[in-house]
Q: What sequence folds into this?
C-alpha cells in the first residue's frame, strides 16, 4: 500500500499523520493529494466518511508559509458542526507545528472574543459563509492573500441557500488562487459554479466502498438509558466477543462505564483524550495483546485505530453523524474478516437512528434483549 510520504507530503507532516494513527491514505486522499500538491484546481465527488478532510488539509498545511502573517488558506463549510470538525482535525495535525495558526469562524460565537483572536496571525481560516462575510464587511478578516480556497460539502451549502454568499466569498479572494471543491453529489448549480470560478479543474470521483460495510453485521438494540448497561452486559454474555470496542459519547461516560464493568470483573480499560500519550499507548498495547478484552473509548479512538482481532463494536451511545458511525463500526470486520456492530438506541435517539439508516441506505435489524 502507498504511504502519505509517497503521495508527496513532507516527511515531517507524514510522520505526524502516522503518529495520529493514519498509516495509509484512503482512496480519495490517494487521488486528491497529488493533484492539490501540484496546485491544480479540483472537483472531488466524495461522500462523508471517505477521508476527504485530510485530503485537503495535508496539502494546505504543507503549503503554508509561517513567516507570512496573513490568511493563506480558507475552508468554507455549510454548518458550524462541520467547521468545528474540520478545525479539530487541523488542530490535531498542528499540535507538532505550533508556528501554524488555525481559526474557526462561525455563527453563535462571542463576536468580541472572535475579534480578539483575529488580532493574531491566522494562517488557515475555517468558516461558515454568513459569519465569514460579517468579518469581511468589518474588515476584520482579509482574504486578498488566500492562495487556496476549499468549498467543502458544496452541494449542502447550495441546498441551504448559500449560493449568493459563496459567490461573494469567492470574489473576495485573488483570481489566481487554487480552488478546491468537495461535494457528495454534483447538481447543475455546482457545475455552473465550477465553470464560472475554477481554472481547468481536474475531476476526481470516488465512490466509497460500500458504505453499508457488507462484512459487518449491524444490529440495533432497543433499550432505555436506565437499562442500557444491563442490556450491554446481556449482549456481551450472549456474543462472547474475542475483542470488543465500546464507544461512549463523552469522557465522563467512558469513565463511568469503565468503573462499572471493571467492578463486575470484566477485562476492560478506557481510552479518551484526557489520557497522556504514554497512557494511551500503554492501553492500546494491552488491548492489542488481548490482555484486556474490552476497550471503552470516545471517538478519539475511532479514527485510524486498527487492531487485529476486533470481533465486535458496541455503540453504547449512538453516534451523532454518519461519518462517526462508519469509522466506529469499521474497527471490526477488517482485513477481510467479518464483524458485528451493536448500536444501543433509547427512545430519544430515534432521529439519529433514522439519519444513520438513511445515510447507509439500509434498515438495521432491531432486537430487544431480555
A:
Amino acid at each position: 500500500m502507498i504511504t502519505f510520504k509517497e503521495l508527496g507530503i513532507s516527511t515531517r507532516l507524514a510522520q505526524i499523520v502516522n503518529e495520529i494513527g493514519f498509516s495509509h491514505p484512503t482512496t480519495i486522499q490517494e487521488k486528491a493529494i497529488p493533484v492539490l500538491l501540484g496546485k491544480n484546481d479540483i472537483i472531488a465527488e466524495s461522500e462523508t466518511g471517505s477521508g476527504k478532510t485530510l485530503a485537503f488539509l495535508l496539502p494546505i498545511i504543507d503549503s503554508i508559509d509561517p513567516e507570512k502573517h496573513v490568511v493563506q488558506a480558507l475552508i468554507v463549510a455549510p454548518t458550524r458542526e462541520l467547521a468545528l470538525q474540520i478545525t479539530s482535525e487541523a488542530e490535531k495535525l498542528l499540535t507538532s507545528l505550533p508556528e501554524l495558526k488555525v481559526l474557526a469562524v462561525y455563527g453563535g460565537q462571542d463576536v468580541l472574543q472572535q475579534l480578539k483572536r483575529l488580532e493574531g496571525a491566522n494562517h488557515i481560516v475555517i468558516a461558515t459563509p454568513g459569519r465569514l462575510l460579517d468579518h469581511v464587511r468589518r474588515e476584520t478578516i482579509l482574504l486578498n492573500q488566500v492562495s487556496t480556497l476549499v468549498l467543502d460539502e458544496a452541494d449542502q451549502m447550495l441546498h441551504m441557500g448559500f449560493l449568493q454568499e459563496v459567490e461573494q466569498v469567492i470574489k473576495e479572494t485573488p483570481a489566481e488562487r487554487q480552488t478546491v471543491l468537495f461535494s457528495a453529489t454534483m447538481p447543475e448549480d455546482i457545475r455552473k459554479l465550477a465553470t464560472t470560478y475554477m481554472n481547468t479543474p481536474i475531476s476526481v470521483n470516488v465512490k466509497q466502498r460500500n458504505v453499508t460495510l457488507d462484512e459487518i453485521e449491524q444490529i440495533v438494540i432497543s433499550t432505555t438509558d436506565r437499562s442500557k448497561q444491563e442490556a450491554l452486559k446481556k449482549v456481551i454474555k450472549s456474543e462472547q466477543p474475542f475483542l470488543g470496542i465500546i464507544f461512549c459519547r463523552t469522557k465522563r461516560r467512558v469513565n463511568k462505564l469503565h468503573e462499572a464493568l471493571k467492578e463486575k470483573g470484566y477485562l476492560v480499560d478506557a481510552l479518551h483524550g484526557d489520557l497522556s500519550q504514554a497512557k494511551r499507548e500503554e492501553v492500546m498495547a494491552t488491548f492489542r495483546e488481548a490482555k484486556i478484552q474490552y476497550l471503552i473509548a470516545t471517538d478519539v479512538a475511532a479514527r485510524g485505530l486498527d487492531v487485529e482481532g476486533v470481533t465486535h463494536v458496541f455503540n453504547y451511545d449512538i453516534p451523532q453523524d454518519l461519518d462517526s458511525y462508519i469509522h466506529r463500526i469499521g474497527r471490526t470486520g477488517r482485513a477481510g474478516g467479518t464483524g458485528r456492530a451493536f448500536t444501543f438506541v433509547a427512545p430519544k435517539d430515534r432521529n439519529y437512528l433514522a439519519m444513520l439508516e438513511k445515510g447507509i441506505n439500509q434498515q438495521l435489524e432491531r432486537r430487544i434483549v431480555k
Observations:
- The chain has a mean pLDDT of 88.
- The radius of gyration is 22 Å.
- DSSP finds 14 helices and 14 strands in the chain.
- Residues 199 and 308 are 45 Å apart (CA to CA).
